[in-house]
Amino acid sequence: MKKVYESIIATGTKNNFSNNLNKKIRLLNIYSLVWSHIVLVFLSLEMFINLIGEVYNKKNISFDFFDLKYFLIHIFIVILLIGVLFINKYLNFKWGRILFLSTFGFANIYAALFISPGSFIEYYFLLMSPIAITLFEKKSTYLFFLVIGFLLFLTPYYFYPVYPPDFVERLLILETVCIFLVLYLLVNYFKKNNTKFEKLLALERDKVLSDKIILERQEAELRELSEFKSHFFVNLSHEIRTPLTLIQGYTNQLTFKESDKENKQKTTIIKEQCQQMQDIINSIMDLSKIESNQFQLISSPVNINSFLDKHYTNFQSLFSEKNIAFLFNDKTIKTNILIDEELFSKAITNLLSNALKFTPINGSVSINTSFTKEGLKIEIIDNGIGINKEDLENIFKRFYQVKNDITKSQGSGIGLAFTKSIVSAHQFSINAESSARKGCCFTISIPKNFISTSINEDSIKELDTVNIKNSLEDKNFKEEHKSTSKQKGKKILVVDDHDQMRTYLKKVLKGYTITEAKNGEDALNILKENNFDLILTDYMMPVMDGETLVKELKKQQNKTPIIVLTARTDQHGKLSMLRLGIDGYLHKPFMEEELLINIKNSINLYKNVKDFDKKTSPEVLKSLNEYADKFNTKITTYINKNIDSPLLTVDTISEYMKVSRSTLNRKVKTILGQTVNQLIQEARLEKARNLRIKDPFASKKQIAEAVGITNTTYLFEKLNERYGS
Ligand code: ADP
After folding, report:
1. Domains along the chain?
2. pTM over the 0.90 mark
3. What is the number of the ligand 1 atom nearest to the C-alpha of 359?
4. Nearest CA residue ID for atom 13, ligand 1
5. Ligand 1 pocket test: which of 231, 357, 416 has the largest number of ligand atoms within 8 Å of its C-beta?
6. For residue range 273-301, what is the model confidence (pLDDT) as tens digits?
7. Which of 29, 421, 478, 625 is 20 to 30 A removed from 452 (C-alpha atoms)?
């Protein structure tokens, strides 16, 4: 039954209609359904009561209870209402609602004038404009129905009077108008509000939907990246594991009982395998260097024939092992090209290795060279497994691999990206043509100005400009080094318990005068008698660790810049150290240039501070320090006091400190070295951590509430990130 009603109510709705239109159609169906039920109930009740009346009065049952006119008019209304549903379904809603309102007008006026005149049926016309409001969009339409409703209401009083004249005189027109208007305004007001909320809801829904799409896309990207990462590392490990196994095997076999010759053979293999591993690592490094422009081509004219012939000879045995016909067709004898021989050789080797890898037994591979209109081309052609169209666009991308049985266990997707980078660095171009199962043809095109029997001056110049561009970064780096060597005379105290680490640091910092200390205590003793331009200290040390050393130095008001070196596992100490006011924090392993730049900047900054100190009177300095202390205490106390409130934000703090948001951020950054948000977050994390230590049985929710964070998962993620689980 419920289902029948549901399907009646849904008559005429469609998926491609707007929500609003479907809602109106459903409403019209409900009106028709409810009204037809009321009509049927009325009709049955009326007949039932008449029948009972006749029986009760002991009249002969004469079927007078059955008023045909009354019956017919009610049935007619029901038919009209069913008609509304049909029109909704087969014509459209527009005509359905007009039929409904016409039926409403006709039925009520007929009842008010003829069926039950004088029984105030005309008051139903109060409903006419509210119904119209719910079914129409245009204001003019419901105003029209308001007027029609009102006129129909007046009909039994004035146009077709059914009430006694004195009754008509008593009808207060103004009051009636008011009632009509009030009802109209009320319904109109609710409709407007409803529309507003619906619009807001629709906006929210759209936002959620678009967020969902973004999230799904990001999720797919992440999944792809993660798949790629694991595939890449599996392959890379595989590539490294093979030579490693060989090295291990042969090393174990090395016995000094064997003849020198036998040992020599084995060590040669070990060396070769080491070289192979070195090559893999080098191509990764070279690729990233090329892509970040830290690269310098060392080009010279090279005879293309002998250059390619060398590669041809090197690969011949490998191809014949697989019974692959390997050919070299050169039509460019005596031609020179301007290349970085070592690098270009890597590009050709990559292409030949791929041809070897992807061409099955009994296949054929050839190297062809020939002149073209633009210059010269080198082709490496194979009849191997080929590459299909979709993959062909991507093969030069870094880490891209076509999914097939061979790449499942071999390769890393670097080869062609590396090859392309090399070719482009030379200002040549490379392209690939292929179709699945028909083999591949890789073509390197060399423009005319890079080829000649005697290389012309212009091309050398042109190539030099490439070199200059590529080595620009390199130069900048060298400048940095130069400037550090100018720092000779600047003194650094290196504090580290690890002898080899100190030796290494001394080597890296060869531009500086270095003094060594084995731990914090040792450093403090040295500092009693000496001044330094910078202190470089390890974090974890026996006797006195880096943190205690820094605390002690700060207590002594020592202003020498301090840089802390640390293993990644000490990460949670970073913030407490930064709060103590150190100048830099580097993770091991660090890049030498990163350390050098950090040291140089800190020393320069220190020099500025010293200059400022010299120029500023001690009174001003003192008051500046006092101000910083007061500011620090005030803001920290406020944060700690309100830490349990989720409303603790930059805005509430700036209000409390009576400064603007931006001023507050600037001051906090200068005095405490953090942004206000970081300050709040750190205070929350520290408190949560202390609570966890104090009461290990406290629930996550309790801890989150105590530090003003509503999202428990987020808090514990951050806590684990910072302090470990
Ligand atoms: P990989 O280390 O996987 O060989 P490359 O960058 O050298 O990486 O090659 C990228 C992809 O291009 C490979 O995964 C391979 O599927 C395809 N490819 C390269 N050369 C050939 C070739 N000669 N024949 C068929 N496929 C090739």
Report:
1. 2-171 (no CATH), 209-277 (1.10.287.130), 296-470 (3.30.565.10), 491-615 (3.40.50.2300), 620-723 (1.10.10.60)
2. no
3. 24
4. 401
5. 416
6. 777 676 666 666 666 666 555 566 777 88
7. 421
